[in-house]
Amino acid sequence: MQQTINSRGHIFWVPRYWPTWLGLACLRLLSLLPLPLLWWLASGLGRVLYWLIVPRRRVVLRNLATCFPSWSQNRHQQIAKQHFHYAAYMLLIEGYVWWAKPQQLQKIGQFRNRQYYDQALDEGLNIILLAPHFLGLEIGGLLLVLERPISTMYQYSKNHLLDTVVRHGRSRFGGQLIERKAPLNILIRSLRSGKPFYYLPDQDAGHRKGVFAPFFGTTAATYPLLGKFARLGKATVIPCYTRLLAKGKGFEVVFLPPLQDYPSGDELADTTTMNKVIEEMAEEEPEQYFWLHKRFKTRPRGEPKFYD
Questions:
Q1: From CA 290, how far away is CA 201, in angstroms rounded?
Q2: Looking at the 3D structure of the chain, how many domains does it have?
Q3: Is residue 79 part of a domain?
Q4: Which stretches in the chain have pLDDT values below 50?
Q5: Contact 25, 15 (CB under 8 A)
Q6: Residue 6's pLDDT is what?
Q7: pLDDT attached to residue 242
């Protein structure tokens, strides 16, 4: 059998990649099934994962209790179970995301409040799309790049086979992937050229790279880069998030009004503004925000651990 080698010289038929090939084959087969069927399958898988993956269930419930303290325990559990359903659905349709044809995506994709985006494009503005970690963010990026080239940040995977497949899937319609450790001037040049930047900022940033800004009333280590990117790229910031429509009915990219008087030049104030906007989006679709992530893991010096 002829060996398969990617552009970096990695041989993919060696045994250590066989489990990855098996997983990719499963995802490819699942991508051929109709979305309503995958939604139904995800319902059962989500229930299994909720009860099976105890550490992550605790993370989700801890996050929800922190961010929505006025909710009852039953409400937290209800949203957590829905979250696992949507997460399982996203897992099952990952192959669809990587291999779906443009006409398939256009058929099941829709936009809400897109006038904010269209107006900025008509005015020739440089644009940063503030896209927090909702479960459907990857497919939202594909729906946007079908209309015009956009760029986004990307972190290479140590699994070179998976990395090759993911990079091809995300860039196959002309999207530009900018590695997170790439020189900043690559991103700024792309922004100033008029290519919208799809920015995912809301993960735990750690002590070294983050600042502590409030998120749902609790300090969270947050990347303070949005204001810097907007200033250097002379860009307007338009928040958006992607909804997975129930019962496999498709996907919807939702735009919010552009941020006004942003950036202010105050790093903490700009980061706090960003977190506030993300809160508003998470409140609209709480079951679809990425609560599986340990958002409050890094604590100010002297504070106890946040998660068990």
A1: 12
A2: 1
A3: yes
A4: 1-3, 7
A5: no
A6: 57
A7: 97
